[in-house]
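Quick one - first record:
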Amino acid sequence: MPRTALRVFARLAYQVASWQWSPYGSKFAPKKFTQPSLLACLLVKEYLRLDYRGLEALLVSASELRAALGLTAVPDHSMVHWFLRHKVTPTLLKRVRATTLRLFTRRFRRGRRVGALDATGFARRPASRDYVTRRRCGASRFSLSSLLVWIRPQGICAQATRVGPGSQSRLLRPLVEETQAVVPLDRLLADADSDSEAHHQGLRETCGIESIIPATKGHRRVRSPYRRRMRQHFPRRAYGQRWLVEPVHAVLKRKFGEALTARTPWQQVKPSLLRGITYNLYRAVRLGLVVWRWWRHRCCRLSITFAT
């Protein structure tokens, strides 16, 4: 991995965390580490697929990384784990993910905004598949992560995690409402698991979103108007963009791992949300959005200098 990309990622993670969190939790807190710096350390840990002791060893040996994270000292591995368990909340992580999503809205502001809903599973333990198969220790249970992805920049707009297997149809409305607060969608693509007349009515009549969901449930005779339209005149060409969600799932598993390190289901929610934020920051660095913002700021300063 290039050192420049890691340094840019760490600096961007620290800036995004600073936009949504105050430096200290209270006036009596020890002024040794800031909350944005510790949250950025967690994002770097997910980015490099490290454990807490590996993160501590990396920070000890990398002074440039400490400067990018705003650290004057190296936090202990137990302190980072305590910070994730007691200070970081799912609500805060949702706000941070919405902030990362605004990095894409500045460049991809034109054109139709199309979102796609899909789910993927993560293993609940980092053990090998052969060990899980032989011992039969919870192989049928996994962590199911439902993602609503903005198709054009391939950024994660909303995310929800629960224990699988199961249906994700009940999560469609909360994920859409969370996305509409940041990126107003024009079209939503979902698989047959979300096939419901109530979903079509809520998306089209309440939210103003064109819903494309294949009507495969039930008998051939469909009486509801929206599902009958999907069965008779299904837009296959427009629905073909939904496969662009699969590269997002592939990057999440190939780059950041197929398993979650937390043990209990309620503790696996935070690492899953951290992984979604890490992916958005990684995608922004890959697309050059950070360099573009820096170049625009520099050009504005030069124009002001020449004008004076």
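second record:
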Amino acid sequence: MIDLMNMVIGGGMVVVGLAMLLALWRLVRGPTAPDRILALDTLYVATIAEVVLLGMLDETEIYFEIALIIAMLGFFGTVVLSKYVIRRDIVE
């Protein structure tokens, strides 16, 4: 049963890794700034998923705290970049 669970988690990590590569491609190639911001936000979400899957695989709780920190930084980064694209100024 444990081997099956590890295989499923490993398969999920491969799928999320593929999603990260596709988001990275959009980040590099994206024709507009909003496309790049959306790709970066997608990378944040995929990274959180990858870290949570790694925590499930290793059965360690520290990875979930790392995922929370990445989520907070990702949200803050997306808001700041979006505000910069809209107003060309971060601080009002």
